[in-house]
TrEMBL record, chain A:
Protein name as annotated: NADH-ubiquinone oxidoreductase chain 6
Principal location class: mitochondrion
Pfam families: Oxidored_q3
Domain of life (superkingdom): Eukaryota
Any one GO CC term of the record: mitochondrial membrane
Subcellular location: Mitochondrion membrane
Transmembrane helix as UniProt keyword: yes
Reaction equations catalysed: a ubiquinone + NADH + 5 H(+)(in) = a ubiquinol + NAD(+) + 4 H(+)(out)
Transmembrane segments: 5-21, 27-44, 51-71, 83-108, 146-169
Taxonomic classification: Eukaryota, Metazoa, Chordata, Craniata, Vertebrata
Function (record text): Core subunit of the mitochondrial membrane respiratory chain NADH dehydrogenase (Complex I) which catalyzes electron transfer from NADH through the respiratory chain, using ubiquinone as an electron acceptor. Essential for the catalytic activity and assembly of complex I.
Family: Belongs to the complex I subunit 6 family.
Membrane disposition: Multi-pass membrane protein
From TrEMBL, chain B:
Catalytic activity: a ubiquinone + NADH + 5 H(+)(in) = a ubiquinol + NAD(+) + 4 H(+)(out)
One Gene Ontology term from the biological process aspect of the record: mitochondrial electron transport, NADH to ubiquinone
Membrane topology reported for the UniProt record: Multi-pass membrane protein
The protein's role, per its UniProt record: Core subunit of the mitochondrial membrane respiratory chain NADH dehydrogenase (Complex I) which catalyzes electron transfer from NADH through the respiratory chain, using ubiquinone as an electron acceptor. Essential for the catalytic activity and assembly of complex I.
GO MF term list: NADH dehydrogenase (ubiquinone) activity
InterPro entries tied to this protein: Complex_I_Subunit_2, NADH_DH_su2_C, NADH_UbQ_OxRdtase_chain2, ND/Mrp_TM
Assigned EC number: 7.1.1.2
GO CC field: mitochondrial inner membrane
Enzyme class of the recorded protein, top EC level: translocase
Gene: ND2
Source organism (scientific name): Equus caballus (Horse)
Annotated NADH:quinone oxidoreductase/Mrp antiporter transmembrane domain residues: 23-285
Domain NADH dehydrogenase subunit 2 C-terminal: 290-342
Main location: mitochondrion
Protein name: NADH-ubiquinone oxidoreductase chain 2
Length: 175, 346
């Protein structure tokens, strides 16, 4: 099972994505988002990226999702929608599950588990050994490079987030 | 809208397109597209009524789907070539998906259904930005990946777009829908020559933007959104009546006006590449376009459209002054003699 752990985790990942995109009430969407965040962290850790995986838990689940949960709890209705309460939601969820099951069967039958592992053909994150100051991992260097060589990316993403807030406020403000 | 916020959001639309055109990393291009989409939504929704909200929602849904398809094509390209720089797209699957995504963004057939509905639901100025500026970013990406685009798919989409753009505009009296169908047809002309000579695509884009800007500004000047209200311009500002005539004939591609230049160059380039049936079909289908432009000129400039008697003595508030309008009119009608200058593009 350990050799297929990334495959299993990615199946759970997709199933939880189906779970929240079949649109139950947002609070239940947040619930499966926690599951998908944890499973995504597991996938990244299997490629050697412990820092990024723990960042998912800390920043994404522990910061953004908590704020989302609080705001949803303020705006929730008396009987929120579950996956089984509404025919449409259940239908979409079952359809998504069916497609995922068919895909899993296709992948397992055709022995093409390589279709999932093709990314790992590019290798895990490389580990550098500089000799004097110890061992560096490439993924942490990548995060550091974001703030040095990738300053333009920081500017662009920061500006997009800021304008995103402006746009949302403008759209919901109305007249 | 608060003027400061409006300026910020408008600048973000510009910044998004600039990022798409300037970047060499596929992820930055995707970010540019998303920034562009996000920032143009409140511009489309400037007037707050259910029609603009519906139009903005339709625009957002189609463009977001196109961005998702683009991201999938980028990742398939990454899987097969291992690099993120924007050059030829090496994998045929990724190339087809990317072409479909960019066609959805441009409004090519069979993804053209959102163009008339979104253009009709928004104000004239927002429609202007939608039909001119928003075409720049996807077209620049198509230009950059043009060596690897599957010819059959692109030419099919182009020819069908010319047909749909001409045929669909025949039954319209609303000016914004007419401009939307004209945009679909022009995008078809532009993408037909993309694989053969991408420079002509850019030339066509330039002249199309000038002519569409002119038309929209003439509509804004006379505050008309239907054929009926356009037919009253002889009473309000008789000069714009003649200018509408000239610009519409230029859009239809009649010599000796500038609109003939891209069509002529495109047909010449296609015949140089030994395809004769295709440009013949395209030229014939452009006649459909010309027909509904002629119908607009007939009701506006050539005849006095039937109206009640008090419409013949209209008064109006002081007309908006559009400074850019006269140079645009000159450029969109008189540029044809400059065609030999295109030889400097080699």
């Amino acid at each position: 099972m350990m050799t297929y752990i990334v495959f299993i985790l990615s199946v759970i990942f997709v199933v939880s994505f189906v779970g929240f995109s079949s649109k139950p009430s947002p609070i239940y969407g947040g619930l499966v988002l926690i599951v998908s965040g944890g499973v995504g962290c597991g996938i990244i850790m299997n490629f050697g990226g412990s820092f990024l995986g723990l960042m998912v838990f800390l920043i994404y689940l522990g910061g953004m999702l908590v704020v989302f949960g609080y705001t949803t709890a303020m705006a929730t209705e008396q009987y929120p929608e579950v996956w089984v309460s509404n025919t449409t939601v259940m239908g979409v969820f079952l359809l998504g599950l069916l497609m995922e099951v068919m895909l899993v069967l296709y992948v397992l039958k055709s022995e093409e588990v390589g279709v999932v592992f093709k990314f790992s053909g590019m290798g895990d994150w490389a580990i550098y050994d500089t000799g004097d100051s110890g061992v560096f991992s490439e993924e942490i260097m990548g995060v550091a490079a974001l703030y040095s060589y990738g300053a333009w990316v920081v500017i662009v993403t920061g500006w997009s987030l800021f304008v995103g807030v402006l746009v949302i406020l403008e759209v919901t403000r109305g007249d | 809208m608060n003027p400061l916020i409006f300026t910020t959001i408008l600048m973000t639309v510009l910044l998004g397109t600039m990022i798409v055109m300037m970047s060499s990393h596929w992820l930055m291009i995707w970010i540019g597209f998303e920034m562009n989409l996000l920032a143009i939504i409140p511009i489309l929704m400037k007037k707050y009524n259910p029609r603009t909200m519906e139009a903005s929602t339709k625009y957002f849904l189609t463009q977001a789907t196109a961005s998702m398809l683009l991201m999938m094509a980028i990742i398939i390209n990454l899987m097969h070539s291992g690099q993120w720089t924007i050059t030829k797209v090496f994998n045929p699957t990724a190339s087809i998906i990317m072409t479909s995504a960019l066609a959805m963004k441009l409004g090519l057939t069979p993804f053209h259904f959102w163009v008339p509905e979104v253009t009709q639901g928004i104000s004239l100025t927002s429609g202007l930005i939608l039909l001119t500026w928003q075409k720049l970013a996807p077209m620049s990406i198509l230009y950059q990946i043009s060596p690897s685009i599957n010819l059959n798919i692109l030419l099919t989409m182009a020819v069908l777009s010319i047909l749909v753009g001409g045929w669909g505009g025949l039954n319209q009296t609303q000016l914004r829908k007419i401009m939307a169908y004209s945009s679909i047809a022009h995008m078809g002309w532009m993408t037909a020559v993309l694989v053969y000579n991408p420079t002509l695509t850019m030339l066509n884009m330039l002249i199309y933007i000038m002519m569409t800007l002119t038309m929209f500004m003439l509509f804004i000047h006379s505050s008309s959104t239907t054929t009926l209200s356009l037919s009253h311009t002889w009473n309000k500002t008789p000069l714009t009546t003649t200018l509408i005539l000239i610009t519409l004939l230029s859009m239809g591609g009649l010599p000796p006006l500038s609109g003939f230049m891209p069509k002529w160059m495109i047909i010449q380039e296609l015949t140089k590449n030994n395809s004769i049936i295709l440009p013949t079909l395209m030229a014939i289908m452009a006649l459909l376009n010309l027909y509904f432009y002629m119908r607009l000129t007939y009701s506006t400039s050539l005849t006095m459209f039937p109206s009640t008697n008090n419409m013949k003595m209209k008064w109006q508030f002081e007309t908006k002054r559009i400074t850019l309008l006269p140079p645009l009119i000159v450029m969109s009608s008189l540029l044809l003699p400059l065609t030999p200058m295109l030889s400097i593009l080699d």
